[in-house]
């Protein structure tokens, strides 16, 4: 497993957006980059930098996935039939850590990844501790019985920061959810605009 070595909120400040729509994000108070050069004026960005920013934003949103892993998702999206950018989003939303986050069993994608790594999640009744595991239609995702009363889980389930999207079904009394279908870009409740078409352009240069 690759480690995320920087603060998640530094990702927000570097990109200049509140990636996860959290009230605690420092971008809400300081919408410029971190460090002594963060407030420098920026010229018109090149096509390359616009594409790179779109890639960094999408990578960052899903817990700052490693470049190697993210490129594999792009390559798989190209192999599949249909629109590559839609396929890419579909694959990212099937990641188990993304699903656990969407079901509100964890407060952030980073917490979701840690929660899975520590063995707190069952998929169809079996323990899965791989955050990148791809969930299929009809899969039932559940918090392990011993973990259902953890404060972090209860806080996430009761949070008003976001809702469970329509392509999933959640029962927070039983801490169980079902992945109903793979979403398209317009179905995903991103707090900021994502541009997977620019990510595809970046990799297809």
Class by SSE composition: alpha+beta
Q: Write out the strand line-up for the largest beta sheet, numbering strands in chain order.
A: 2-1-3-5-4
Largest sheet: 5 strands, antiparallel
Q: What share of the residues lie within helices? A: 25-40%
- Average of per-residue pLDDT values: 87
- SSE arrangement, N to C: HHHHHHEEEHEEH
Distance between the termini: 29 Å
Radius of gyration: 17 Å
Strand content: 5-15%
* SS elements, strand count: 5
Domain Small ribosomal subunit protein uS4 N-terminal: 3-93
GO molecular function, one term: rRNA binding
Region (Disordered): 26-47
Domain RNA-binding S4: 94-158
Describe this structure in words.
- With 205 residues, this protein is α+β, with helices and mostly antiparallel strands.
- The chain has helices at residues 8-15, 47-61, 67-79, 84-94, 96-102, 109-117, 151-158, 196-203; strands at 121-123, 126-127, 140-143, 168-171, 176-179.
- Residues 3-93 form the Small ribosomal subunit protein uS4 N-terminal domain.
């Amino acid at each position: 497993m690759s480690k995320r070595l920087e603060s998640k909120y530094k990702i927000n400040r570097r990109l200049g957006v509140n990636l996860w729509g959290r009230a605690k994000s420092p971008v809400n108070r300081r919408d410029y980059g971190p460090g002594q050069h963060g407030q420098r004026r920026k010229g018109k960005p090149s096509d390359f930098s616009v594409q790179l920013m779109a890639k960094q934003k999408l990578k960052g949103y899903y817990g700052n996935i490693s470049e190697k892993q993210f490129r594999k998702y792009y390559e798989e999206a190209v192999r599949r039939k249909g629109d590559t950018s839609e396929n890419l989003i579909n694959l990212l939303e099937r990641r188990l850590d993304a699903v656990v986050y969407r079901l509100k069993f964890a407060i952030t994608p980073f917490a979701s990844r840690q929660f899975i790594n520590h063995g707190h999640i069952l998929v169809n009744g079996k323990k899965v501790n791989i955050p990148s595991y791809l969930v299929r239609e009809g899969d039932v995702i559940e918090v392990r019985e011993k973990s259902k009363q953890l404060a972090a889980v209860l806080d996430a389930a009761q949070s008003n920061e976001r809702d469970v999207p329509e392509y999933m079904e959640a029962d927070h009394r039983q801490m169980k959810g079902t992945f109903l279908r793979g979403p398209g870009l317009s179905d995903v409740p991103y707090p900021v605009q994502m541009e997977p078409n620019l990510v595809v352009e970046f990799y297809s240069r």
